[in-house]
Amino acid sequence: MSADNAEQREIEAEQSYVDTVYERLDASAKVAQSLVVEGMARGHVGNEGGLVERDAMVYQASKRLSALNAAHDGLVFGRLNMLDGESRYIGRIGVRDADREILLVDWRAPAAAIFYQATAQEPAGVVRRRVLRCSNDQVIGIEDDLLDSDHAPDDMVVIGEGALLASLTRARDSSMHSVVATIQKEQDEAIRAPARGATTIGGGPGTGKTVVALHRAAYLLYTDRRRFESGGVLVVGPSSVFMSYIERVLPSLGETSVTLRSLGEVVDGLRAARHDEPVAAAAKGSSRMVKFLSRAAAAPAPGAPTSFRYFYKDDVLRLDAQQLERIRRQLLSGARRNRAYAKAPSALVDALWRQVRGDRALEKGEEGFVETITTDDRFVDFVEEWWPPVEPIDVWRTLPDLIEPLSHGAFNAKEIAALKQSWTLDEPSIQDVPLIDELRYILGELPESGDDDDDNPKQLMSFERREREERVDRFRSTQSIEDDGFAHVLVDEAQDLSPMQWRMLGRRGRHASWTIVGDQAQSSWPYPQESAAARTSALEGKPEHAFRLSTNYRNSAEIYELAAKVAAVAVPDPDLADAVRRTGESPQQHVVAESELVSTVRRSAEEILGRVDGTVAIVTPRARLSPLTEQLSDFLAEHADRLRLLDGLDTKGLEFDGVVVVEPDGITDESSAGWRTLYVVLTRATQLLTTVGTTDRWSTRIA
Questions:
Q1: Beta-bridge partners for 513
Q2: Nearest to residue 293, comparing CAs of 442, 125, 82?
Q3: Three-class SS of residue 653?
Q4: Strongest mean pLDDT among 209-213, 657-661, 668-672
Q5: Could you tell me if 259 and 237 are in contact, meaning their C-beta atoms sit under 8 angstroms apart?
Q6: Which 8-state DSSP code applies to residue 582?
Q7: DSSP string covering 6-43, please?
Q8: What share of the chain is helix, strand, coil (3-state, %, to 5)?
Q9: Residue 152: closest CA among 128, 124, 132
Q10: Which of 45, 83, 242, 299 is the most buried (most CB within 10 A)?
Q11: Which of 97-106, 112-121, 154-163 has the weakest average pLDDT?
Q12: Cα–Cα–Cα angle for 656, 662, 667, nearest 5°?
């Protein structure tokens, strides 16, 4: 029998089993759908119990239906032929037949672990491991690994060159895909690490750190669903581009309840997509910001009155700037600014009453004084102007004016100038989001309506709800700081986090377990020791489980050899992985005149697009991004489904079949972390890499 005929017969046999699994999946989906309908009907019972029962039934049934639908594509991906003759099928979720017998083992179940852990050296009772390549519900290919040839039956068919190497040649598209069928042993160990504490996953580019971390999130939800689903799982990545790239991975594994946010979206209600220039970004990210923000939060509101005069009976009562400052300090010493809001009126009233000396006033007593002054619009207006409730975003807008007088030497002249310039857009950057979050915690929340303090004059509660002009502001946080916590925090590209970003994430993971993914050689943060201290504080002494992934599955050896030379300049002793494949395609390097730069970039991208089936990226220094977007607009539109134009930071975590790097020297020069950024950019390419520049200082240095 020919190899082609043998493979076709094996595919047909596997298709028969796959069809049985899908029939059962469809039956389960119908049951879940009927439970949704039944649950909705129970809402018509007409009593509170019926509504509660409806909500619970609809929620659980809808969640199950979503998981079944999400796992439909490529549901069955593996089969184990065991030494005892058992065949064990592995899939994205578990499926049982009508008699509750197992048809498909969930990849996260203990029974599926040997699918990833068995090797030819330690087969663990597995004779043959088979990966089924499927398109929707159709088996289109098979790849086998014969792990125990001594115990293989004479008629056992072995097909293909191995699933992993086959998957490495697949064209990239605009989304990351699950690698659940091709997880390797060292990756599986990281996925199944203990849930408690912090699991760190390190290794060079292309080792699968991100996708392993996402599979770990799915694994944790499977092993302790009540804890992680009720407490929430937060996945944080470097950019919205990256989050769009990975958004399909967890749903494809049957998990639809995870919160995915870029660093610019961690704070509910805020969405930031732009980066500040390097000097401003480094200053905003520094832990030096904490004391400055505390001073800014305590500063008087812009335009706040500095004195108050009130005529009462025979007395003229005054509060000058010095007295008001003393009252301000007293209020802030015992509470956050917004929590002290309700106490401010009584503190002012007390200070004014102590000045009362006239007989008529004293005769009426303190109670009469309080009643008079707290119903006087002049006093009401003064209090609202002197101690208004403060939104973090409003304080953030005042920071350019406060940075010089309140930083107390923490920032040098260059940093102060860069910081002032960075606020000119009146729109938060990615680096501003942690500052606004810090202010949320420093300021505190406003008291809820009716949160009266018995020591306050009751008339003054009108201050808390006095009508104000409503202003639409898309940058206001819509979530209470009490609701920020999660049960698990997964942070990717962790080497890039600034101290302020670590503080922001630390507040969301105080009681959480963590998965931390990173590689210091790819860091864009210029001060690693400061960031390491903030990381330690954020983890609060949690036990750590460290894993290092050692094999580069993404880049060809030719591409990675060039990138490794850049890494050696970027950091001492970089963590270099072993590239497992060669393509015979060496990176191309072009040095051209400025007048030829754009045409050469276009020609290089056209050539790569013609040679690969998947996606291609043109990566440029930030300063050239806008001009190139305009100069290549027609070309980008023509290939919108396959071609991206990005700056170096936005390539974090992504991969493309081909990459054209524009002005590598511009990338190395744009910040103190420029060489590390260039290392990241070069390692985004899986098959073809071309550099185009008007200078070649970078290549001379690594020669």
A1: 488
A2: 442
A3: coil
A4: 657-661
A5: no
A6: -
A7: HHHHHHHHHHHHHHHHHHHHHHHHHHHHHHHHHHHHHG
A8: 50, 15, 35
A9: 128
A10: 242
A11: 154-163
A12: 100
Distance, CA of 560 to CA of 567 (rounded, Å): 10
Which amino acid type is present at position 324?
L
667 token code pair? 């990338």
pLDDT at 460: 47
pLDDT band (50, 70, 90) for residue 180: low
Helices (H), 447-517: 462-465, 499-508
Q: Report which DSSP code applies to 105.
A: E
Would you place residue 6 in the very low, low, confident or very high pLDDT band (cuts 50, 70, 90)? Answer: confident
Domains, the chain, ordered by start = 3-170 (no CATH), 202-273+485-552 (3.40.50.300), 308-386 (no CATH), 557-702 (3.40.50.300)
Which is higher by pLDDT, 692 or 475?
Answer: 692
Name the maximum alpha-carbon separation found in the chain: 117
Question: Taking the mean position of all CA atoms in its chain, how far away is CA 111?
Answer: 31
Q: Which residues contact 354 (CB under 8 A, 6 or more apart)?
A: none
Helix axes 278-285, 289-298, angle to 10 degrees: 80
What confidence score (pLDDT) does residue 2 get?
58
Local structure of residue 267 (DSSP, 8 states): S
Average the pLDDT over 497-506 and give the result. Answer: 97
- Name 78's bridge partners: 90, 131
User: How many Cα atoms are found within 13 Å in the side-chain-facing hemisphere of 243?
Assistant: 19
Single-letter residue type at 572: P
Residue 208: φ, ψ to 5°: 90, 20
Q: What angle do CA 465, 470, 472 make, to 5 degrees?
A: 135
Q: Which residue has the tokens 């990675």?
A: 560
Q: Could you give the C-alpha distances from 144 to 10, 66, 91, 242, 529, in angstroms and in order? A: 11, 32, 16, 33, 47
Give the other-Cβ count within 10 Å of 48's Cβ.
8
pLDDT number for residue 179: 54
Q: DSSP secondary structure string, 184-210?
A: -HHHHHHHTS-SSSEEEEEESTTS-HH
Determine the average pLDDT of the residues in 21-28: 86
Quick count: other Cβ atoms within 10 Å of Cβ 431?
25
Closest CA to 230 of 480, 36, 485, 53: 485
Element (H, E) at 246: helix 240-246
Candidates 631, 605, 608; CA nearest to 619 is 605
Contact 233, 487 (CB under 8 A): yes
